[in-house]
């Protein structure tokens, strides 16, 4: 019988929230174990945000190199060296993994590498290359993340499709890439691979891309992708798949559509990593989709057990997982921070970027709010003209009678950075005229905010 090692706390899964909490508590002198299957630093730096944004930057350089003549520079014979793209991505990832490892070591936490599962309340068994360790602690923090969902489509599993993990490590460029799902991953990866030289088709079951956004944003994003030659196929239902990704693969729709590609990438949402890990033995409830049920301070149904990040149903962003760490820390210290009503911004890293904070116009209508809307085409912003980045718009939703900013969306160059300016104003409770009347440096993209908020109609 393996002895049970005891700790003050166990972080089960080393995602953003978990590793941050673990390092902090270990530095404070507590005996902390982190159970991690193998990704030092979690999925963001290993297989998600960081490698995808590195790939996207390589693709952007390739695109710019091919479009320099518009700027008066002639470059001939531009070609992509995909192994070099892959190696750059791997190097950025390796550096971040090393930084995380150094942080773990310096904090004094105990990293237990291997696949973990509950075998009893507050007790986790970790299996790695034949060895078994059993760990127990009065406090457990679950941060196990999600994996790519492979939908139940006839022939899909057999086709051995790529997920983001494999796609980010390809050494050969797919000649014809089919992308199943036109969400965040689908949109970002489609544009990146298109710019690196692949023919790309997005196969989306919904009636539009970015369905949570206003129709103008959704349409603008679709135009951006289509203008670069990406085929966007919407309303694709009752799919069947034939062939093998990496050789030849065919996706058929129920209404007779047919798409042929060399590779198939699945980006159709996420599945929480909660199956087969003994949550029932530990008294931890999950919902019908397998996400761990939590309250607004991320406590699970088991006393002394919290869940954080994607596995707890939090918004699927690294910054949301980081905020979950703050919520749990507050919960431990009997504070009041909660997940209720928090402002979670996001950026879709297509070019130009799409960013949003707060509500959009369709949300305002759905919630029955009285609101005013202001919109500004990127084309009128002087900096956008100097950069030849004229695509897109800014859009603000403002209360009809209090000047409160309800939300901001932007499709345009530097949208993520500009959105953060509005977010700060919203967090500070600033009425919109403060942004309208601020002295904003010329010529910056943020200068457009003054013009945007000048377009808000007088209150009724
Ligand atoms: C392609 C892609 C691009 C993305 N881009 C962005 C972006 O630009 N910006 C953004 O904010 N978000 C982005 N995201 C989302 C972001 O990666 C996640 O929201 C973020 O990493 C937070 O994850 P987490 O903290 O829930 O857990 P994770 O970081 O997923 O960590 C969970 C950890 O648990 C470990 N684990 C799981 N099961 C076990 C087990 N049984 N035993 C031991 N260990 C286990 C895993 O190995 C993993 O390290 C992207 C996601 C993808 C897939
Ligand atoms: N820039 C970022 O912050 C960023 C980037 C990538 C991923 N992420 C996070 O990762 C999460 C997962 O990304 P994702 O793109 O996998 O999911 P998603 O939920 O964003 O999009 C999935 C898409 O696949 C479609 N779909 C689902 N099943 C399908 C089927 N059978 N056939 C055709 N289409 C189908 C859905 O309609 C949807 O449009 C996102 O929700 C996001 O929070 C964030």
From TrEMBL:
Residues 344-449 form the Pyridine nucleotide-disulphide oxidoreductase dimerisation domain. Keywords: FAD, Flavoprotein. SUPFAM superfamilies: FAD/NAD(P)-binding domain, FAD/NAD-linked reductases, dimerisation (C-terminal) domain. Its cofactor is FAD. Residues 7-322 form the FAD/NAD(P)-binding domain. Belongs to the class-I pyridine nucleotide-disulfide oxidoreductase family. This is FAD-dependent oxidoreductase. It comes from Rhizobium mesosinicum.
């Amino acid at each position: 019988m393996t002895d049970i090692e005891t700790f003050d706390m166990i972080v089960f899964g080393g995602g953003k929230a978990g590793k941050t909490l673990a390092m902090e508590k270990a530095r404070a002198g507590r005996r902390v174990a982190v159970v991690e299957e193998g990704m030092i630093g979690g999925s963001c730096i290993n297989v998600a945000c960081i490698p995808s944004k590195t790939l996207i930057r390589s693709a952007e350089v390739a695109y710019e190199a091919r479009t320099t003549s518009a700027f008066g520079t002639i470059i001939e014979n531009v070609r992509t060296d995909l192994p070099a793209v892959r190696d750059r991505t791997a190097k950025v990832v390796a550096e971040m993994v090393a930084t995380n490892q150094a942080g773990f070591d310096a904090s004094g936490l105990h990293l237990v590498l291997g696949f973990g599962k509950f075998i009893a309340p507050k007790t986790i068994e970790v299996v790695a290359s034949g060895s078994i360790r059993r760990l127990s602690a009065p406090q457990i923090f679950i941060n196990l993340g999600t994996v790519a969902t492979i939908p139940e489509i006839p022939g899909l599993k057999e086709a051995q499709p790529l997920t983001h993990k494999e796609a980010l490590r390809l050494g050969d460029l797919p000649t014809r890439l089919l992308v199943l799902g036109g969400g965040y991953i689908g949109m970002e990866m489609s544009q990146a691979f298109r710019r690196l030289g692949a023919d790309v088709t997005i196969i989306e079951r919904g009636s539009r891309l970015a369905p949570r956004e206003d129709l103008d944003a959704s349409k603008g994003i679709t135009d951006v992708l289509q203008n670069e030659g990406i085929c966007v196929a919407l309303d694709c239902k009752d799919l069947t798949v034939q062939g093998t990704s990496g050789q030849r693969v065919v996706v058929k729709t129920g209404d007779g559509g047919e798409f042929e590609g060399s590779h198939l990438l699945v980006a159709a949402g996420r599945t929480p990593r909660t199956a087969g890990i003994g949550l029932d033995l530990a008294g931890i409830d999950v919902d019908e989709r397998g996400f761990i049920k939590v309250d607004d301070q991320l406590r699970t149904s088991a006393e002394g057990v919290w869940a954080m990040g994607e596995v707890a149903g939090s918004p699927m962003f690294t910054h949301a997982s980081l905020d979950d760490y703050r919520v749990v820390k507050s919960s431990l210290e009997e504070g009041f921070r909660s997940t209720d009503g928090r402002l979670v911004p996001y950026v879709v890293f297509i070019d130009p970027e799409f960013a949003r904070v707060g509500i959009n116009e369709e949300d305002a209508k759905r919630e029955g709010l009285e609101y005013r809307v202001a919109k500004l085409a990127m084309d009128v912003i002087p900096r956008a003209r100097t950069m030849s980045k004229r695509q897109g718009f800014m859009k603000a939703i403002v209360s009809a009678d209090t000047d409160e900013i309800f939300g901001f969306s932007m499709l345009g160059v530097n949208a993520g950075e500009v959105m953060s300016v509005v977010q700060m104003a919203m967090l500070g409770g600033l009425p919109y005229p403060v942004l309208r009347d601020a002295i904003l440096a010329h010529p910056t993209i943020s200068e457009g905010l003054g013009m945007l908020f000048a377009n808000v109609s007088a209150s009724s």
